[in-house]
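Notes to self after the call with IL:
- keep both proteins in one doc
- input above output, always
- annotate only the second one for now

Protein 1:
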Amino acid sequence: MGFGGLAPSAWLLVAGVVLDAVLGDPQVSFHPIRIVGKTLALFERVLRRNGTDGYVGGCLLLLMLGLTFVGIPSAMISLLSRRYQPAGLMAHVLVIYTMLALRDLIDHVRTVQVAARIGDLTGAHRAIGLFVGRDTDPMDIPACRRAAIESLSENFVDGFVSPVFWYVLAGLPGLLLFKVVSTMDSMVGYKTERYLRFGWAGARLDDVMNYLPARLTWLLLGAVSLVLPGLSGLKGWRIGWQQHAVLPGPNPGWSEATMAGVLQRKLIGPIWKKGTLVTQVWLGDSTDTEAGTDFDVHRAIVVIVLSSAVVIVLSIFVLLWLMSPIKHSR
């Protein structure tokens, strides 16, 4: 392994993805992402207690988290790889495994799907409530299914495509940095009085790091759907291009609008927050029917699973191609 055991490796990436597919996300209190979250909350309290708030505080928070969860783990794995390479390889794979969330994402969607399938509206509300920040009480079964499809599409980018993208581009440090930034965005990246300035650094860097992966996902979902019966890759590309800006932020709309197009179904619909109807916008072709059937959820899962397989195959080719000049130069 080059670069002190931190460089991207096609086969270590495959090993990490296989572990995620077989075992799912480890549900333990010492999960690395949970530790990042708890440490972030601690750092935030310390910074605010010392009067370091606003943009400066947010930038310091990013720096502190980066040093703690990118710098230190990278140094430890690099040292381990030099001292005892098998242990370094194992640590490398474990980091990849714990930083990916595809199996966990699909399992959550299937929980919604199973509850909806038996007409358990309470169970569907409980399951979809883990995904969305909207009021779930006004949602019927079709609305829960639509929300599951939307969340699956959006989280496919930051839960799988972006981590793999940054791993291929920058190895373990790139993967770790992306997950730190993603955690910051989810915890402090709100446009509220408390976090508008303090969360700015994390939110903006999250936008930057998801920028290319979100647009690659637009291409990917459409391409995969070209070969699947009953789906429309061309419509996915068209709707994704035309309607990606309907959703707030520069990135989420690309995957969600594209999914609406490939399924040939409308997504989103009425959304309530704190008892107030905040939007009634629909994504998708105006002539298409509203998503909301069990089959719609099933097809969305198939698209995501096949797309993730394509991501890994392409990543293997890229990494092997990048390594070939190194081999020839020796």
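Protein 2 (the one to annotate):
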Amino acid sequence: AISGPEATPANDGVANLLKYAFGLDPFRPAAGVDLPQVEMAEGLLRLTYHERTGVTDIEYIPELSEDLDSWNSGPEYVTEVGRTGAGTGFDEVTVEALLPEEAVRGFLRVRVTRN
């Protein structure tokens, strides 16, 4: 199927909803630089992604996990540390998360939901 929020018409594993949220063409395979980027910086996990401005039909929710099973959001887990204009209709958003000292590993993602 090529239509609907979960469809992947480019067969790249990136659903239409995510392509809409990040401003990507649903019929072209997404390249790594088009998608959210995660890095480790100064002992913090950092996630950078593009967020549409002026839209009310989707919500971006940065989340942190230590095990890829349970995910947590909110300022006690993930903090927005930067927002700049990234082009017409988009902001580049950067969030950071400080893992608990006892954490062996950590993962960040941005969950996109439809309103």
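Annotation: The chain is about 5% helix and 40% strand. The first helix runs from residue 16 to 22.
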